[in-house]
Amino acid sequence: MRHRKLTFKIGRKSAHVRSLLANSVCSLIQHGRITTTIVKAKRVRILADQMVTLGKEGTLHARKLAIAKLRQPATVRRLFDEIAPGFQNRNGGYTRIYKLGPRIGDGAEMAILEFVESDDVMAARSLQAEESAAETEAPAQS
Q: 104: domain range?
């Protein structure tokens, strides 16, 4: 019985799974969103959130840990310099999964995995909403 065993069965050997996850996280960092199966997306989300947490830390040690896990220094540089600073005020939950439905070829359930909007984008969007609300109220009061 597999009670309380939290593992996602990807159906590959462990070295292949590690490479697949590292490459998927690197693709997510480079492109902002990836389309994959739901099982892989749930597994990639765990590693991606860990890497963003390391990026928020910003130390040399954290950078070396991320490079050891992802094996792409240029991608880690982008993570630490561009992506992680946008999540400074967020305590986890850096990614979201949208379910798409079955894949045409084999019927596997597909999903989109993407980063949620950073704090900067959220603040700018709320500021625009407040300004537009103030503009709509101003002519009504005149």
A: 14-116
Angle formed at CA 109 by CA 106 and CA 114, multiple of 5 degrees: 130
- Positive or negative, the CA dihedral 44, 47, 50, 51 is negative
- Whether the CB-CB separation of 59 and 91 falls below 8 Å is answered with no
- What's the predicted TM-score (pTM) here? 0.83
Closest residue by Cα to residue 28 from 89, 111, 106, 102: 111
Q: How confident is the model over 95-126, as pLDDT tens digits? A: 999 999 999 999 999 999 999 987 777 777 77
Quick check: is 67 in a domain? yes
11-42 pLDDT tens trace = 899 999 999 999 999 999 999 999 999 999 99
Total structural domains within the chain: 1
Determine, yes or no, domain membership for 141: no
Q: Cα 5 to the chain's mean position, in Å?
A: 24
Is 138 among the domain residues? no
Q: What does the block give as tokens for 99?
A: 């379910």
